[in-house]
Amino acid sequence: MDFEWILAAANELVSAKFGRHLSDVETAILAGAWQHQTYEQIAEQSGYSISYLTRDVGPKFWKLLGQALGETVSKTNFQASFERYWQQAASQGKLSHEQPVPTIAATRVVEAVQNDRGVSLKQRSLQTQPPLPVSPDALLLRPVPQPVSSQARCDWGEATDVSLFYGRTEELNTLQQWIVPSLEEQYQCCRLAILLGMGGIGKTSLSVKLAQEIQGSFQFVIWRSLRNAPPLNTLLGDLVSFISVQEDTSDELERLMYWLRTSRCLLILDNVETILQPGDSAGHYRPGYENYGDLFRAIGETGHQSCLILTSREKPAEVAALEGLELSVRCLRLSGSLEAAQALISAKGLLGSDVQKRTLCQMYGCNPLALKIVATTIQDLFDGQIEAFLDQEATVFSGIHRLLDQQYSRCSPLERTMMRWLAINREWTSISELAADIVPAVSRSDLLEALESLSWRSLIEKQGGRYTQQPVVMEYITGRLIEYVREEILHGFNPFQIELPVPYAVDSISVLQNHALLKAQGKDYIKETQSSQILQPVLDSLLTALGNPKNVESQLMQVLRQLQKEAPLEPGYTGGNILNLLYQLKANFTNCDFSNLTIWQADLRNVNLHGVNFAHSDLAKSVFTETLAIPLAVMFSPDGQLLATTDVDSEIRLWQVADGRNLLSCRGHTSWVWSVAFSPDGQVLASGSDDKTIRLWDVKTGQCWQMLQGHASQIWSVAFSPDGNLLASGSEDQTVKLWDVSTGECLLTFEGHENWVRSVAFSPDGQWVASSSDDQMVKLWDVKTGKCCHTFEGHEKRVWSIAFSPDGQRLVSSSSDQTIRVWNLNTGECINVLRGHTNWVRAVAFSSDGKIVASGSEDQTIKLWDAYSGQCRQTLRGHTNWVRSISFSPDGKLLASGSGDHTVKIWDIPSGQCRKTLQGYTNRVWSVTFSPDGGTIVSGHDDHTVQVWDGSTFTCRRSLRGHTNAVCAVAISPDGSMLASSSSDQTIRLWNLETGQCIRILQGHASRVWSIAFSGDGHLLVSGSDDQTVKIWDIRTGRCRKTLTGHTNWVCSVAFSSKGLADDAGRTKQIVASGSYDQTIRLWDAETGDCLNSLEGHANWVWSVALSPDGKLLASGSGDHTLRLWDTATGEHLKTLEGHTSRVWSVAFSPDGTQLASGSSDHTVKVWDVATGKCLQTFQGHMNLVWSVSFSPDGKTIVSGSQDETMKLWDLKTGDCLKTLRADRPYERMNITGVTGLTESQRFSLKVLGAIEEE
Hints:
Rossmann fold, six-stranded parallel β-sheet, globular, four-stranded antiparallel β-sheet, single chain, alpha+beta, 1255 residues
């Protein structure tokens, strides 16, 4: 009995008892105990803390193992316990000739034990992806374990109910033999099976029934429909997360194949025909879905222990090439089942002899859907008598579409309208939703009657008062909808009545006018499907008919002109439909006339509408870009109808959750608003800001009625007591304050934290306040006395967020140490540590029922955890930047998240899909610089662009595009020929300054790149990143020459000396300086990469560093509101420059080195005398913080870039602002005079983004 056997057996026992494998830390303890190591030695080797092993996971692990073995197990006796287990199993004949198969992770540990070398399990567990096995086929060399049904982890998605299932016994037996063969046939196991058959034949039901029957042979079962054609990376991310139990969040095919080898999985993909190209090219994919072929090929060709089942009406080309009866890819063609068909018509109550029933079934190919539909006709017209129907009906069944043609022609106009809306909505739809969609409005009784008729005809499905269609019906109706819209656009649009060629003449109303092809206010994932499955096919058909995009655009514009002429402001969807089609066509909207139109359900986000005329148009239900800056906090109202958000533009916004409309904005704070909270009655909103104040707002009016002052620094968090009478606040001044809401009086100040207080929360009974801090502690305070009752220790870095469970028994905390801890409030013990995030965990929240803990992280994901077991249930992906704030809706069904990608997302908790994205636009100026000759100014912007300005005329010469996220820094080479830009997209781009052409992309950083600088000779470039590294790049080759490590947090700023410094040996060194969020400055030798010095003294992060022209001085700007001057050679601190009243974001030396400029959160630019440290001038004019400052080459002018989206040029001699530059906003000069359908807050936002309203 060796360690490999013990480890594999432990995994099997724990899996059988608790449904999971050993974690990395548990495996490390077992391996260490086998080698007779102490906990200290295990901690040193594995990378975990000694206290974590001895006090937390160690005792729990031995108890867990004891429960699995059925006896008391400890670190000293576990080998004897396993010996007894082995002997008992052997005596009972339960041991196989093969040893249990260890997991891949366990195999790594076994190798380490056998080689007697250490493995840092903690480091490996913090990596995004587990290592790939050396031999992918290794797991296939042994029989696959067959877990019992209770062990299978299943996700059935939208799988249909098969509680009533008839026949298909032979097909089920065949499939089971293919997928779960007997032991002697193990090596003939089918890896991919496709169920092929016409629409409605029963493929979906068979796939679900089969999966239910064989789920016990798999560890994971996941069923997914491709009806809405998800992109492959979306599907892969979903599959990988589920199979890895949220351990892996990759959306790469390689990772899925890894997990299919590691675990035995059953995957079912329904409706594969949706991603296939319709028409003659059978088996080929729609544009954008070709990579599904790679998935099918990899699963069919590569060795693994899993199986993929596809259902489709046609066979993908890859499957056709790989299939064979004796091969691992097989096809089962489904024809109708007579047994199932006869059972169905009997259930429908049809009357007739056995022969007549058989005849009816065979006439319709035993197709279940066809028989369900025709059964209604027999009931309606022939009183249920099959004989009478057979006497009259001579048509031979020739396909489901022909049958649907017949049924559709029998529908009333209202029924056809409802069928089209159900196809557009593409999911379960309520009566109220249908009523809101239909134009002109119809009575509820008419709606119910039409729905009842459609249900009776079996054309729609009903569930809990909501309705949808079977995929084949939805596809049919969508196809007809596309045909109608194409014909209307091509043959002349009439908003009231339309004459169409046969066969479209069945509809006398305008489909284009009465139906929205895309619902702009709908759920995000539905809009994506409407765009790809409706809008794009309409455009494709128009392109086929008209030849080129220009002709299509002209035809669409003609429809709008006709609408303006014949039906101005007539209620309907034509205006919105045409604008959505034009946007999908990538048309240029500049100066278009869209006045006097009803424009409903137009999605006009991310669209430049420069000079567009919307005067007197109805814009109800349309969606525009909002002025939402980077959101810092999100919070649902107590009734769940409103969502409050705060941002870096000092505003609080209230949104209507149902449709995403911005209802009002609260303005008054003068700096970033970090926190927001609703009072329990939902009438008051509290906010805490960088401006050191707390404000109380009236939710109905948005007016501030109370301002609370007393904190000495910024306020990170606010929270109401359960009765709404008290408010708690946590501040950078290291205190927690308790306020009387009615009077604004500070009642108590809680002191005890040794660093910033990041989060505060009231217990559900209101007796306690919890606080978390950068001092790595969580404290519990008595509300009545203000005394600290308990301090929770365990986190290894700052604690960002805390939340009480609804029952008040537990507290969760999230930290920069990438963990969430769950604390028992009665004992003060940490009862669970949740691991899985790969970066700081910024936010944590409990669901209202206490069953789910949600966490938001710098790794751009949100994780949903089981609050009791600590297992990650789901990972929500979609944000492209950090997630700082999350909030559950009161009913626990929704989760809101705010991210650095300028979006707030609202997620559906049951499905994990993003329902709505509130998208903002701000175009802060992150970075500005002059060219060496002063003739050009370059700026880096939030909108992903680099703007190049003429230094004489101050006009924008060109806009450089290519970055996919904010441009954080720009720099120009000393000879003025090359421009460099760095971005939050983790890349650096090199541009030809004269032509604007991108020359090279430098890749290597693992996070946003905050800062860049050229060397004095222009041959090298240095960069600093959130990944805590400094990189030095060779400009000529684009290669990274050196990666400098040593900082323990973000590297916010870098500088290159323009001249070298001589060392003691007379050697000239090129110096690189870097400033970091870790509050230090480091000086590096650019040639060797050695750290020459680490400068400490700032009391907050160092955001900016600059080297003087002669390289002898270094200036730094910090969050502690000061600038410091340092001697570069010795590292000595020379001066502290004080005068700014808030954070200092940027510093720059004048060309002669005698002056220093700085930009700050206090909205000012200051100029300092380097020799004396005195402030010479203060430039005021910016309306928000100043991110960047730069001197002109002649030293006479300073340019500054600000959060207020402007650049200002300042005369250094007079202090005057010479010019204000601003890049065009999305809605520059857009005319909204007299428009209707907008809230005042929306109107205000449009104006902020450039819209005009004429008097």
